Amino acid sequence: MGHGNRKLELETRERRPLPPFVRVGSLYLVFVGLLLCVAGGAFALLMWRSFDRASGQRDWEETECTIVESRIDQRQIGSEVGTEYSFAVTYGYSYDGKVFTSERYSLQGAFWSSSKERSQRRVDKFPGGTTKSCYVNPEDPSSAVLKMDSKAPGYSLWFPLIFIVGGIGMMIGAVRSDLMMRRSAQHEKLN
């Protein structure tokens, strides 16, 4: 058999379609890329909401308040879990001639921790009977906090955006690769 016969045999042989694992692989990469986009989008949204809430607090008015009580609360969820501690505070303030009380340390609420010392530091910082500054929402004077939320999530917003960009790139790459293989297969079929 000569060299020319081998070429004729290859050209006349029926071309097979793309193996199914190529299509499944592309679909898998699109799915993973979509999951990355959704996860990145969810985290970006949560971080943006936190940043936006903290930015809105910058319009709140600083007011003097009197600490009525500060204490350490404790809880134990189950017998297998150690005791957790949280800082609790009650303070009074006046705004536009009206008297209010609040129990909010921050908008994020009180954190529970296994460290009693952390809560004790806050009790020491806000002892009962002292006068401190609190921040009052002028649109809802019944809402006040002792500590404003941090705007740090806004400065870290780029991180979840990496996942979104990576997911989009993964989906584009998978679809592009699949299309190139199909075109190549069709081109070989026509020739």
Helix content: 40-55%
Protein structure class: alpha+beta
How large is the radius of gyration?
A: 31 Å
Distance between the termini: 23 Å
Beta-strand level of the residues, as a percent range? 15-25%
> If you average the pLDDT, what whole number results?
85
Characterize the biggest β-sheet: 5 strands, antiparallel
Strand order of the largest sheet: 3-2-1-4-5
Poorly predicted segments: none
Helix-strand pattern, N to C? HHEEEHEEHH
What is the overall silhouette?
elongated
Quickly count the domains. Answer: 2
Descriptive notes:
The chain is of the alpha+beta class and 191 residues long. The mean pLDDT is 85. It folds into 2 domains: 28-58 and 155-191; 59-147, no CATH class. A hairpin with a 2-residue loop joins strand 2 (84-95) and strand 3. The chain has a 5-stranded antiparallel beta sheet with strand order 3-2-1-4-5. The protein contains 5 helices and 5 strands; from the N terminus they run ααβββαββαα.
Chain-wise SSE layout:
Layout: H1 3-12, H2 20-57, E1 61-75, E2 84-95, E3 98-102, H3 116-125, E4 131-136, E5 144-145, H4 152-155, H5 158-190
Antiparallel strand pairs: 1-2, 1-4, 2-3, 4-5
Helix pairs in contact: 2-5
Name the descriptors.
single chain; 191 residues; alpha+beta; 2 domains; 5-stranded antiparallel sheet; 5 helices; 50% helix; 21% strand
Summarize the structure.
The chain has 191 residues and is α+β, with helices and mostly antiparallel strands. Helix content is 50%, strand content 21%. It has two domains: 28-58 and 155-191; 59-147, no CATH class.
